[in-house]
Amino acid sequence: MDEARSLESSLASREICLFSFHFRMKDRFSYHFALLKKPLGILFALCLAFWSRVLFTGQVLLPGAMLGGFAPFGGQQSAPWTILQWDALAQYFPWRHFAAQSLTRGEIPLWNPFQFSGTPFVANAQSAVFYPLNFPFWIFDTAFAFGIAAFLHSVLASFSTYFLARRWNLSRAGAVLAAAIYAFCGYLSAWALLPTLFATASWLPLCLLLFEKASDDEKPGAASVGLSLALACALLAGHAQIFFYILLALALRQPFLRRKWRGLALLCGSLGLAVSLSALQVLPTLELARIGHREMTPPTPADWNFVVSRALGHAPISATQSAWNWSDLQSFFVPGAALSWGTLNENFAYIGLVALLLGITGVFCSRKAKYSTTNEVSPDKISSQKTSQTPNLATSTPQNYAVALALFGLLYALATPLAQFFFFGFPGVAQMGGTGRALLLWSLGLALLAGFGLDFGRARIKSGVFVPLVFVLVGAELFFNGFLTQPTAPRAQIYPPTTLTTFLAKNSAPDARVLMLTPQRDWLPTEGFRAPKTHPQGILPPNGAMVYGIYDVNGYDSLSLRVYRAFIGSAQQNGPSPALNGNMVLLDSPTQTLLDSLAVRWVVTPQGEPLRTGTGQKVLSANGCDVWKREISGPLRVSGASFAPGWRDGKYQPQSFRLGGFVSLCALAFVAASLGFKWSARFR
C-alpha cells in the first residue's frame, strides 16, 4: 500500500510539475510575444510594402523587357540590357522552371537534357534544388515565385538582424532601423533578381547571432545546432562566394568574443556539421567542379589585374588594366547609380544618405559597456522577485566589430591588398566573382552602426519627432532605390510561347537536337560597358531552350563539362565561347562533322540569312527566324552523357550524390536526436 501511495503521489507530483511548466511556458511565450509583435510586425509590414509590386499587382520580379531584344520576342535593339540582371532570365528562371517541373513529376533533376547536349543539373550548386526556402518555386508559378522568395528572404534578413541588434543592447527602435537598412539596402535590392546570391546573403545576420549565442551562453548546444542548420541553409542556397564571405564575417567576429577559443572550436564543429547536412549538394558540386571548365589553376597577376579593373572605384581601360575612377563612389550616395563598367550589381554600396550619416555617427559615438537590466519584467520573474540581466557584451565589443566588418567589406570591395591576399592565398577564391560582392559585409556593418547612431541621437535630441522622422527618411530612400533597381514585368512577358518555340519543342529530341546560330561577337562582356547599352543579337537566351523543352547544343553555366567544351571547341575555329565569357557555349561556325556527331537536326538562323553550316532545307520562317532541317550522316553520336561520370544502365546515377545523400541523412538524424534529447530533458 505504501508503495502504491508513493507511486500515486509521484505521478500526481509529475502531473502538477508538467501542468505548472505548461502554464509557466505559456505565460513566458505570451509575454515575449507581446514585446516582440510590435517591432516584428513593423518589419513584416515593411517587407510586404517593399515587395508589394510583385506580390499584389500581377507583376513579376524579372526583367521581362530584356527578352524583347531576342528574335522570337521582337528582336528590338532598343530593348533594355543589363549584363548581370539578364542572368535572372538567362539562367535562374529556366533552371527554377525545369526543377519545378521535375519535382512535380516526382523526379530529382540530376540531369538536364536541354543544355550542352545534356549536362549535370543538381551538381551545380546554383540549381539549389535542396534549399528549403526555395519551396515557393516548387509550389507556385515560377515567375511569381521570384517575388515570393524575395519577400521571405527579406523577412529572414530583417528579423535576424533585429534579434542580433537587440542582443547587442540596441533599443527596439535602433534594432528595427538596423534590420530595415540591411534588409532593403542597395546591395540586396540590386541582387534580388539573382536568387542564389540574395538568398545566401540573407542568412548572414542569423549566422552571426547564433555564433555569438553558442560562444557566450553557458549551454551552447541548441545554439550550436542552430548555427549548423543556418550554415547548411546558406550553403544549400547556392552561392559559394557569398558563403565564403559569411565565413569571413564569422571568423572576424571571433577575436571580439569573450570566449575566443571556445567560439573558434564551436564554429569549426558547426561548420563540419553544416557541410555534412548539405553533403547531398556539396559532393556532387565538388565532383562537377573537378571536371568542369573552371579549372583550379593557380591565379596569375594577369588574373588579378582583370579583377581589379572591375572592382569598386576602378574603371577598365583594357581587358586587364584599369584606372582609378572617383565616379564609382557615387554608389554610396546616389540611388540606382550607374557605375563605370555598366552594372550596379557588382559594386553597389548604397544604404541611403541618412543611414550613412547615422552609421558614421555610430562609429564615433561612445556607449558605456555594462550589464543592462531589462526594463520589462515578465510575470513569472515578478513573482520570484528576480532581476533579469542580459549577457555582458562589454568584452565582446559588438560596436567595434560592426566597424571592423564594414571596413573589411569596403577594403575588400576596393581590391586592396586585403582582397589580393585572399585571391592568391585561398584556393578557389580566384574562380569567384568580383570583389565588389564583399559589400555585403559593408552593408550589414553600416546597418548595425546606424542603429547605434540612432540610439546616440535619441539620448541627445529630446524630441518625439526625431525617431519617426529618421524612419520616414530612411524608408523613403531605400524604397525609392528599390523601385529604381528592380525591373519588373507582366507575367505574360516572360518566355511566352511562339510559333518558333512551339515547332522546336515538338520536333527536337535527344537524337534530333537544335543549333541556334548566334554570333559570338555579339556576346562579349564589353557589351555591358557601352552607352547606350544596345541589346546583343540572339535567337533565344542560351538556356531559354529549357523553358520550352528544346534539346539544345549550346548553353550557359558556371560549371559546364570541360571535356564537352574541348570536344566542340576543337571543331570550331574561334573556340566554343565568346571572348572573356567562358561560361557560355555558342557555336557559330561548327563543321558538318561536329553537327553530325551531336545529332543536330535543326539549325535556326536570323530570318533572311543564308545557312552557313552546310546544306539544309528551310522548313519554317517565323518570329524573325528561319528553321533549317538537315540530314544527319555518320554512325558516331555524342552527347553530354559521353563526358559525365555516373551513367549506369541508361540512367544518370552519380556515386557522389548517393554518398552525399547518405551522409546528409546521417547528419540529419544526429541533429534530430540532439534536439529530441534536449527537449525531453526539459520534462525531467
From TrEMBL:
<feature type="transmembrane region" description="Helical">
    <location>
        <begin position="401"/>
        <end position="426"/>
    </location>
</feature>
<feature type="transmembrane region" description="Helical">
    <location>
        <begin position="264"/>
        <end position="283"/>
    </location>
</feature>
<keyword id="KW-1133">Transmembrane helix</keyword>
<feature type="transmembrane region" description="Helical">
    <location>
        <begin position="464"/>
        <end position="484"/>
    </location>
</feature>
<feature type="transmembrane region" description="Helical">
    <location>
        <begin position="438"/>
        <end position="457"/>
    </location>
</feature>
<feature type="transmembrane region" description="Helical">
    <location>
        <begin position="659"/>
        <end position="677"/>
    </location>
</feature>
<feature type="transmembrane region" description="Helical">
    <location>
        <begin position="176"/>
        <end position="204"/>
    </location>
</feature>
<keyword id="KW-0812">Transmembrane</keyword>
<feature type="transmembrane region" description="Helical">
    <location>
        <begin position="40"/>
        <end position="62"/>
    </location>
</feature>
<feature type="transmembrane region" description="Helical">
    <location>
        <begin position="137"/>
        <end position="164"/>
    </location>
</feature>
<feature type="transmembrane region" description="Helical">
    <location>
        <begin position="348"/>
        <end position="365"/>
    </location>
</feature>
<feature type="transmembrane region" description="Helical">
    <location>
        <begin position="224"/>
        <end position="252"/>
    </location>
</feature>
<protein>
    <submittedName>
        <fullName>Membrane protein YfhO</fullName>
    </submittedName>
</protein>
<keyword id="KW-0472">Membrane</keyword>
